[in-house]
Amino acid sequence: MAKSLSGTGYGLYWKTWGYLLALTLGMLVSEYLALPRSFLLSLLLAAMLIKAALIGANFMHLRFEKLGLVLAITVGILATGAVLFFLIAFDGVHVFRLASQ
Fold it and tell me: What ranges in the chain are assigned the alpha helix state H?
């Protein structure tokens, strides 16, 4: 039998799902607001990082692990993302320039 919704058992997963849903809806609504582009991108990036942290902490159970393991996983993911960004960004700029000509 499932435990109560007080933060233990399945309740934690439902709360996390609710936070993720609220963040996703907030991100979608922010697209339609007249926000400056740099602020909008910063807002969306922050929301994505919060969503990734929630997923990692609750669904991947990283909040129960030692700090060293969490840091190793976090640094590994961020380093991989940075390498992929720098490998793809130059080609993206080149394609953008070709398309605008």
Answer: 10-32, 37-54, 67-100
